[in-house]
Automatic annotation (TrEMBL):
Residues annotated as transmembrane: 6-27
Keywords: Membrane, Transmembrane, Transmembrane helix
Phylogenetic classification of the source organism: Bacteria, Pseudomonadati, Pseudomonadota, Gammaproteobacteria, Alteromonadales
Species per Swiss-Prot/TrEMBL record: Saccharobesus litoralis
Record protein name field: DUF4145 domain-containing protein
Length: 181
């Protein structure tokens, strides 16, 4: 390979990255103003969606229309056959959110950022007399099943079992929400 061929191949490789970098640098102020309006970014296999306004609207809607939360249960049950593990994880997340709100309402200084967060929440629910022994046992069993689904590689769950799990989660959620004295 002579020096001329080498130079042409080198230029062929470097031209596009240099042009793109220069264009981004030259237009950086204008691009900075356009970023909040970006809805979707896709590059090869990497894809990212933005929806700040949509997320804010969803939060407002959940506050204004609490029945949307009830629809969450129906959606989880509907998706239990096709995605039982994901449905179980989402149902547990609902239990966790309600239990965390209750615990923090009764004991605002509680630090729930620990390795055994769910065990701590369970202990605080008992200590604060929010749940009795049978309810705490249900909380513990639901937590254990969720951990198996999340962490055990060979653990499989059927759609029917996922629906039963979701029903139990929402019974516990209803109990916690009605007895949050």
């Amino acid at each position: 390979m002579d020096w001329m061929t080498f130079t042409i191949k080198l230029m062929d490789i470097l031209v596009w990255p240099i042009v793109v970098t220069a264009a981004v640098y030259a237009l950086r102020q204008q691009l900075r103003h356009l970023i909040p309006f970006t809805k979707k970014l896709k590059y090869k296999d990497f894809e990212m969606e933005f929806g700040q306004e949509l997320k804010a609207a969803k939060r407002d809607a959940e506050k204004a229309f609490p029945e949307i939360k009830r629809d969450k249960k129906a959606m989880l049950i509907a998706s239990a056959d096709s995605m039982p593990s994901a449905s179980i994880m989402d149902a547990w997340r609902e239990v966790d959110q309600v239990a965390e709100k209750l615990v923090l309402a009764k004991r605002p200084q509680a630090d729930l950022d620990t390795n055994q967060r769910y065990k701590l929440i369970e202990d605080l629910l008992i200590e604060l007399k929010i749940v009795d022994t049978p309810k705490s046992k249900l909380f513990n069993e639901l937590r254990t099943l969720r951990n198996k689904v999340a962490h055990a590689e060979a653990y499989q769950v059927s759609g029917t079992e996922a629906v039963q799990y979701i029903e139990l989660c929402y019974r516990l959620i209803d109990y916690l929400q009605t007895n949050k004295v």
